[in-house]
Amino acid sequence: MSYETFPMVPHNEAAFNQANLPPRYQTPPPWIPPKERVGHPDYDNNLSKFLLRSVKFRRSKSNEQLGFSIRGGADYGCRIYISGVIPDSVAFRVGMKPGDLILSINSVDFSNITYDEAIKVLKNLDEIEARLKYYPYGYYKTYERTGEAPPIE
Fold first, then answer.
1. pLDDT in tens, 65-107
2. Any idea of the CA torsion for 40, 44, 46, 47, to the nearest 10 degrees?
3. Which of 25, 27, 59, 109 is deepest in the core (most CB within 10 A)?
4. Residue limits of the PDZ domain (predicted)?
5. If you ran DSSP here, which 8-state letter would residue 111 be given?
């Protein structure tokens, strides 16, 4: 490399170092003492809503609604989720909510089931014992896969 093509280093070393620094990062939120974290939006430590749970209920009539709707399925490349619950329905009273991942219903594994197969299973039941897990991340991914806009909470 000849002297004419050699890159020039600025005479001001501070300016040279400033130009080569990585971009500044966003500062973390302020530290909050542990006793003040309960109920604070930045420190929600209640993870119990994400635990596996079982709910059991019965339809009074075979033509009565179950009280919830589903979305997803293996045909959409995802699992089956509760997408809506009718207020004051039996499903609502046992604690079902949008974003619940259905793991099984009456010992029928829902891990790799299509939407239509899930509907067939649900339509033929009067008594339901469901294993659920609240998993909102996967639930919102079902909207990405179908190209629909997710509901606004």
1. 899 999 999 998 899 999 999 999 999 999 999 999 999 999 9
2. 170
3. 59
4. 54-124
5. T
End-to-end CA distance of the chain: 63
Positive or negative torsion for Cα 74, 104, 140, 86: positive
Strand extents, DSSP E, 42-126: 53-58, 68-72, 80-85, 100-105, 108-109
Q: Is the dihedral of CA 141, 146, 149, 151 positive or negative?
A: negative
Domain that holds residue 93: 50-146
Instruction: Note whether residue 8 is domain-resident.
Output: no
The Cα 33–Cα 101 span in angstroms is 34
**Alpha carbon 97 to its chain's center:** 12
* pTM reported for the whole predicted model: 0.69
CATH number of domain containing 78: 2.30.42.10
**Residue 3 resides in a domain:** no
The domain total for the chain is 1
Residues in the chain: 153
Alpha helices, DSSP H, located in 2-153: 13-19, 90-93, 115-123, 136-146
